[in-house]
Automatic annotation (TrEMBL):
It comes from Methanobacterium bryantii. Gene3D superfamilies: Winged helix-like DNA-binding domain superfamily/Winged helix DNA-binding domain. This is Transcriptional regulator. Keywords: DNA-binding, Transcription, Transcription regulation. Residues 28-116 form the HTH arsR-type domain. GO terms for molecular function: DNA binding; DNA-binding transcription factor activity. It comes from the Archaea.
Amino acid sequence: MKTCQINGKGEPCSEQIENLNEILSKIPSDEIFEDISDRFKAISDPTRLKILYLLQEGELCACEIIIALEKPQSTISHHLNVLKNAGFIKGRKEGVWIHYKLINPEIVCLIENLVK
């Protein structure tokens, strides 16, 4: 950023302040950034990323995810709830088990692009 020298201090000039105010006016709200941050936190765990990869093939019962990832039911249940609360997956109850599927399968493409 270029600065104007005023009284020996480097202070932004009025043109710079105008440009900054224009940029600031386009920044989304804090609530939007909080939501984005929460969603990134939800996929910051390797187990949750694996669950998303598994679900890209279609709906799976929680019991299948438990078997595939060789983790305790309580651990998988916790991770599924985090992903569900973040809006990545949804579940449908069938008997004693819940079957999960991706809400937006494009999340897996995004993750794959990050891996490359």
